[in-house]
Amino acid sequence: MNKTVIKTMEMLKLFIDRERLTLQEMVELLQMPKTSVYRMAQSLVELGFLQKTNDYYQLGLAFLSFGMLVAERLDLRRIALPIMKRLKEETKEAVNLVIRDGDEAIYNEKVDTSEPVRVYTKVGQRAPLYAGACPIAIKLRI
Predict the structure, then answer these.
(1) Fewer Cβ atoms within 10 A, N terminus or C terminus of the chain?
(2) Nearest CA among 57, 52, 121 for reference residue 84
(3) Which residues are in the HTH iclR-type domain (predicted)?
(4) Is the confidence at residue 118, as pLDDT, over 90?
């Protein structure tokens, strides 16, 4: 495998759990030389995968385009959405489409309830398989 690609992806993965990071925070988390982290970050800024605001880096708008492409091209969502809407109407509850990714569940689509008390989820959110009804159902293969 290409080490540069792996290190770059490791840098981008830092932003899964963090909205923004300083250069020094990335250096500490990646345990890489500051000059290497800086060069990688600058390349990602130039390509639109990161944005730099003041002293902070955050994901760039290029990810929005990729995210929308993945969402549009995933047939499971297209097939499930009408069923999810019907289920929401019948139960008056929120309906989530969750898929397994290793030891985690990813919320892939949702139809919110109009009820005042509800659980907040967002598309793209990851959760361990022990946290929440949907991930537990996946883990138990219900």
Answers:
(1) N
(2) 121
(3) 2-61
(4) no
